[in-house]
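Anyone up for a design puzzle?
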């Protein structure tokens, strides 16, 4: 029990440390990433208003889920493009990338590259 509490506290402290340096405003909102075991979520958030400008999740993508290595990373790139498209439709061109407590590799990195390819600047 103690070990899991300490692990959760460490994760929360890491996320808080990273988010402490980032603020999303109307001119430059925050692109936040959340990973669960089954899904990947991305939101463009205006922290000054506390509103989500655009969002998308991995389960929205119609690509066939397969066991091919790298398939989740490929879908993360597509997710980044979808979020970028929705954000640009709302008038957002530049964002601050908030990776949360996750390391910048794998799906998180692929999502960021997809958002850049979709037209967002950060």
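Challenge accepted. My sequence:
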């Amino acid at each position: 029990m103690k070990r899991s509490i300490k692990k959760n506290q460490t994760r929360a402290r890491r996320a808080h440390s990273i988010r402490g340096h980032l603020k999303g405003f109307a001119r430059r909102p925050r692109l936040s990433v959340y990973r669960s075991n089954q899904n990947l979520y991305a939101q463009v958030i205006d922290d000054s208003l506390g509103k989500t400008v655009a969002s998308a999740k991995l389960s929205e993508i119609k690509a066939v889920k397969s066991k091919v290595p790298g398939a989740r990373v490929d879908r993360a790139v597509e997710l980044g493009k979808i979020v970028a498209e929705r954000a640009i439709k709302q008038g957002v061109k530049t964002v601050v990338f908030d990776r949360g407590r996750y390391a910048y590799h794998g799906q998180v990195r692929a999502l960021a590259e997809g958002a850049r390819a979709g037209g967002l600047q950060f």
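A detail worth pointing out: The longest strand covers residues 40-46.
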